[in-house]
Write a structure and sequence with these properties.
It is built from nine helices and seven strands, in the order αβββαααβαβαββααα. By secondary structure, it is of the alpha/beta class. It has one domain (about 5-220): Nucleotidyltransferase, domain 5. It has a five-stranded mixed sheet, with helices on both faces. The protein has a two-stranded antiparallel sheet with strand order 6-7. A hairpin with a 2-residue loop joins β6 (about 160) and β7 (about 165). α6 (about 145-155) runs parallel beside α8 (about 185-205) and α7 crosses α8. The chain is globular, with a radius of gyration of 18 Å.
């Protein structure tokens, strides 16, 4: 017997409530990153998506997702310089509709993790809406927010160093925590860097009183 959309949605939120009650060590995560043609969500597009699974603090290197996408609005020189993906590389690649269907299946009901993840999620939700699909309802954690919370909780955080605003980009934090990286942007490698950063935080959080996924979602809210 076919289930209705309302029944499927009710089942999803029931599962989501059960998920948030889990300890952070037992929760399932999908760590994501996107590369874009630009930062304007109204006119720019996703050009690649990368993701990697985590079970608690364990990174699953056997469960990866990476797709190049042929963007509807084409490519521009400035974005190519950043991510290195050329128009010829995406010319024969699928459109965003196909890739997002595969991507949401890959994520399942996992907690989604990313760095400055609001930008990624805004583009993903825009494309899902354009394709006429229901919104992406997974819980979301921003590693930038978790970093700030950890630093503030331990009395180490300052919004300014030497009179300048503190840099909170992924590579600066990776350097702080001794995570190796190359300078180039790639959605999958950046997702892997983010996963390692998140792994560092997960090891610290229980000692700071953050033990459940529900607690995590509060401190890492985008």
């Amino acid at each position: 017997m076919m289930t209705s959309y309302k029944e499927r949605l009710t089942g999803f939120f029931t599962k989501n409530r059960e998920l948030t009650a889990l300890s952070i060590e037992n929760a399932d995560y999908t760590v994501i990153d996107t590369e874009l043609t630009g930062l304007d969500v109204k006119k720019d597009s996703i050009v690649s998506v990368g993701a990697i699974k985590m079970k608690g603090g364990r990174i699953d290197l056997g469960s990866l997702f990476y797709r190049l996408i042929n963007p509807a609005n084409g490519m521009n020189h400035d974005s190519v310089v950043i991510h290195g993906i050329t128009p010829s590389e995406v010319a024969g690649k699928p459109a965003i509709d196909v890739v997002l269907s595969e991507f949401t299946d890959f994520c399942g009901s996992d907690i989604i993790v990313g760095h400055f993840i609001s930008l990624d999620m805004n583009f993903i939700k825009k494309e899902l809406g354009r394709a006429g699909r229901q919104t992406f309802s997974n819980s979301v954690v921003d590693t930038r927010g978790v970093y700030e919370w950890v630093k503030e909780s331990t009395g180490e955080y300052s919004r300014h160093y030497a009179g300048k605003p503190q840099e909170l980009d992924l590579f600066t934090l990776a350097r702080e925590y001794g995570i190796p990286f190359s300078e180039g942007h790639n959605a999958l490698s950046d997702a892997f860097i983010t996963a390692q950063l998140f792994q560092r935080f997960l090891s610290m959080l229980p000692g700071l009183g953050v033990r459940s996924a529900r607690d995590l979602l509060k401190i890492g809210k985008p």
